[in-house]
Design a protein that fits this description.
The complex is a heterodimer of chains A (172) and B (328). In chain A, strands 2-1-5-3-4 form a five-stranded mixed β-sheet, with helices on one face. Chain A is built from five helices and five strands; from the N terminus they run ββαβββαααα. Chain A folds into two domains: 2-75, Ubiquitin-like (UB roll) (Roll), CATH 3.10.20; 83-163, [2Fe-2S]-binding domain (DNA polymerase, domain 1, Orthogonal Bundle), CATH 1.10.150. Chain A is an alpha+beta fold. In chain A, 47% of the residues are buried. The longest helix of chain B has 19 residues, at 307-325. Chain B is of the alpha+beta class and 328 residues long. In chain B, α5 (87-94) packs antiparallel against α9, α10 packs antiparallel against α11 (285-296) and α11 (285-296) runs antiparallel to α12 (307-325). Classes of the chains: A alpha+beta (172), B alpha+beta (328). The interface between A and B is large, with 36 and 35 residues. Bound molecules: flavin-adenine dinucleotide (FAD) and FE2/S2 (inorganic) cluster (2 copies). Flavin-adenine dinucleotide binds at residues 25-33, 35, 50, 69, 96-97, 101, 104-106, 108-110, 112-113, 161-164, 210-211, 238 of chain B.
C-alpha cells in the first residue's frame, strides 16, 4: 500500500483517519500545502491527483492508495519556478501567501479542465466543445480558493499571464 | 474522529457483503461523510469504499442513461450526452460546491449528503432532532433564514442542500439499489423523506442498502431545460432557492413541463401541482405565475425565511420564461 507524492513512493498510513493533508504536512514534512478550514471550504489544501484538483483535507489518505499526488513542492522543476509561480510573483498574486500554494495548484488543474472543455456555471453554451478562458470563467472556476488578503485581482492577472492567451497549450 | 475500520470493495455484491458483516457505512468521495465524522456527528465503526467500481455513464438502448453511483460529479457534468440531452443536470451540478469538491464527490454520495443546517452541525451548543432524536430543534425559533418553507414539521425545518438532486427530481430519475435482500429500483422523488416526527431518518433506504446507479429515462423534453440557483454570493454558496425546469411548447401551448425546487424543503421538491396547472395552457408569464402560486399555496414561512416564498415564485417564472424564449 503506497501512494506516489511528487514522484516519491510513500507508505499509506496505518490509521485510516489520517487525511491526505495531514499525511503531507505532518508526516512527510511537505508543509507547502496549507490547512485553512479543514472542512473543504477554503481551498488552501488543494493538491493534484493525476492532474485533477482536490481538497486534501477531506481526502482520507488511504483512499488514494496507488495514486500520484502533486503538491506545490512538485510543481517547480530543476530549480526553476513553474510559469504560474513566476506569474504570481510578477503580478502580486498574494500578500501573506497562505492561500497561494492552493491557488497555484488549483489554477494549474483549472486550465486542464478548460482545455478538456469542462463547462462551468458561467459557460453559456454547454454544447460547445471549447471554452474561452475569460475573466468571468477564471473567477467562477477559482471560486473554491479563498484569499483572506483579497489578492484576487493579482491572482486573476497572474493566471492570465501564464495561461490566458493560450489555454489550449499544455499547462506545464 | 472516532476510530473506524476501512476496506475497499471490488463490486456491488462485495460492498454489500462487507457492509452487512461489519455494519459499515459506504464511503464515496468523503466530502460530506469525512467532514461529519471529524465533527463526530457521524461515528461509523467501519467504512466500505465504493469508489472503485460503477464509475461509468452508459447510454441505454432506449437512449436513456445509466450513471454508475461512483461517477464523479465533474465527470457527469462534462459528459457530452448529459450536456446536450439533459442540460439541466450539468447546470445543476456546476452550480454546486467547487471544482475541487465536484472532482471528489460521487453521484451516490451527492444523493445522500446531509443538511447544512448550522444547528445540526453544532453538536456542542445546539439541540437538533436530526442529530439527537427527541432533543428538540433550535432552528425552529432560531436563525432560520435558510430553512424550509415546504413540507417541514415541528421537529425539523432543515433543507436538503443538493443541487444535483433537484435536477434529478425534475428528470424522473430512477435510483438503482442493492442490498442483501436483493436489488430494487426507486423513483428519485421517493428516495428522500419529509421530516415528520423522525427527521433523523432522511431516506427510505434500509441500513446497508447500496446505491449502484441512477437511471435517466429518455426524455426529449429535457433538451430544453435549465437550472436557476439563487444564493447569497455569485458563486460557491448553497441555494436559498433553486429551480430545475424543462419545457416543451407547441403552438404557444405547454405540451409538457418538468419542475422541481431546491433549498425549500427536507427533500428535493418536485412541483407536481405547478406542472399540473401548466399542462395544456398558454405559455405566458401570467400562467407561469399562476402555476407558481398553486405550488406555493401551502408554503409556510418561519421567522426569517418568508422572503423565500416570493423568491421561489419569481425564480419559477424566470426560468420558465427563459426556456419559453429559447430558440431550438
Ligand atoms: C464546502 C462545501 C460546499 C458545498 N457546496 C455545495 C453546493 O453548493 N451544492 C451541493 O449540491 N452540494 C454542495 N456540497 C456538498 C457536496 O456536493 C457533497 O459533499 C458531495 O456531493 C457528497 O458526495 P461524496 O461522494 O463526497 O459523499 P460522501 O461524503 O462519501 O458520502 C455522503 C453520504 O452518502 C453515503 N454514500 C456514498 N456513496 C453511497 C452509495 N453508493 N450507496 C449508498 N450510500 C452512499 C455515505 O455513506 C454518506 O452517508 C458542498 C460541500 C462542501 C464541503
Ligand atoms: S483546508 Fe482544505 S479546504 Fe480549507
Ligand atoms: S495571500 Fe493571504 S490569504 Fe491569500
Amino acid at each position: 500500500m503506497c501512494l506516489i507524492v511528487n514522484g516519491r513512493e510513500v507508505a499509506v498510513p496505518e490509521d485510516p483517519r489520517v487525511s491526505l493533508l495531514d499525511l503531507l504536512r505532518e508526516r512527510l514534512d511537505l508543509t507547502g500545502t496549507k490547512k485553512g478550514c479543514n472542512q473543504g471550504a477554503c481551498g488552501a489544501c488543494t493538491v493534484l491527483v493525476e492532474g485533477e484538483r482536490i481538497v486534501s483535507c477531506l481526502a482520507l489518505a488511504v483512499q488514494y492508495d496507488g495514486r500520484c499526488i502533486t503538491t506545490i513542492e512538485g510543481l517547480a522543476g530543476n530549480g526553476e519556478l513553474h510559469p504560474l509561480q513566476q506569474a504570481f510573483i510578477d503580478h502580486d498574486g498574494f500578500q501573506c501567501g497562505y492561500c497561494t500554494p492552493g491557488q497555484i495548484c488549483s489554477a494549474v488543474a483549472m486550465v486542464g479542465e478548460v482545455r478538456r472543455g469542462v463547462p462551468s456555471h458561467v459557460t453559456s453554451d454547454l454544447a460547445a466543445e471549447r471554452v474561452a478562458l475569460d475573466r468571468d470563467e477564471v473567477r467562477e472556476r477559482m471560486s473554491g480558493n479563498l484569499c483572506r488578503c483579497g489578492a484576487y485581482n493579482g491572482i486573476v492577472d497572474a493566471i492570465f499571464d501564464a495561461f490566458g492567451d493560450s489555454p489550449e497549450e499544455e499547462a506545464r | 474522529m472516532t476510530p473506524f475500520q476501512y476496506a475497499g470493495a471490488s463490486d456491488a455484491a462485495d460492498a454489500v457483503r462487507r457492509a452487512e458483516a461489519t455494519g459499515a457505512r459506504y464511503l464515496g468521495g468523503g466530502t460530506n461523510l469525512v467532514d461529519l465524522m471529524r465533527e463526530t456527528i457521524e461515528r461509523p465503526a467501519a467504512l466500505v469504499d465504493v469508489t472503485g467500481f460503477s464509475r461509468e455513464v452508459i447510454e441505454q438502448e432506449n437512449s436513456g442513461l445509466r450513471i454508475g453511483a461512483a461517477t464523479r460529479n465533474t465527470a457527469l457534468a462534462e459528459h457530452p450526452l448529459v450536456r446536450t440531452r439533459y442540460p439541466v443536470l450539468t447546470r445543476a451540478i456546476v452550480a454546486g460546491a467547487t471544482a475541487q469538491i465536484r472532482n471528489m464527490a460521487t453521484v451516490g454520495g451527492n444523493l445522500l449528503q446531509r443538511t447544512r443546517c448550522t444547528y445540526f452541525y453544532d453538536d456542542d451548543g445546539s439541540r437538533c432532532n436530526k442529530r439527537s432524536p427527541g432533543q428538540g430543534c433550535d432552528a425552529l425559533d432560531g436563525f432560520n433564514r435558510g430553512h424550509a418553507i415546504l413540507g417541514a414539521s415541528k421537529a425539523c425545518v432543515a433543507v436538503n442542500p443538493s443541487d444535483m438532486c433537484v435536477a434529478l427530481a425534475a428528470l424522473d430519475a430512477i435510483i438503482h439499489l442493492e442490498s442483501p435482500g436483493g436489488a430494487r429500483r426507486l423513483p428519485l422523488t421517493d428516495l428522500h423523506r419529509l421530516p415528520g416526527e423522525r427527521p433523523d431518518i432522511e431516506t427510505v433506504l434500509a441500513p446497508g442498502e447500496l446505491i449502484t446507479a441512477i437511471e435517466l429515462p429518455a426524455l426529449p423534453i429535457s433538451m430544453r431545460s435549465g437550472y436557476r440557483k439563487v444564493r447569497d454570493r455569485a458563486s460557491y454558496a448553497f441555494a436559498l432557492v433553486s429551480v430545475a425546469a424543462a419545457l416543451h411548447i407547441e403552438d404557444g401551448h405547454i405540451e409538457d413541463v418538468r419542475l422541481a425546487l431546491g433549498g425549500v424543503s427536507h427533500k428535493p421538491w418536485r412541483a407536481w401541482r405547478a406542472e399540473e396547472a401548466l399542462r395544456g395552457q398558454p405559455a405566458s408569464e401570467a400562467m407561469f405565475r399562476r402555476a407558481a402560486d398553486a405550488e406555493l399555496s401551502e408554503a409556510r414561512p418561519l421567522k426569517d425565511n418568508g422572503f423565500k416564498i416570493e423568491l421561489a415564485r419569481r425564480t419559477i417564472v424566470a426560468i420558465l420564461a427563459q426556456l419559453a424564449g429559447e430558440k431550438r
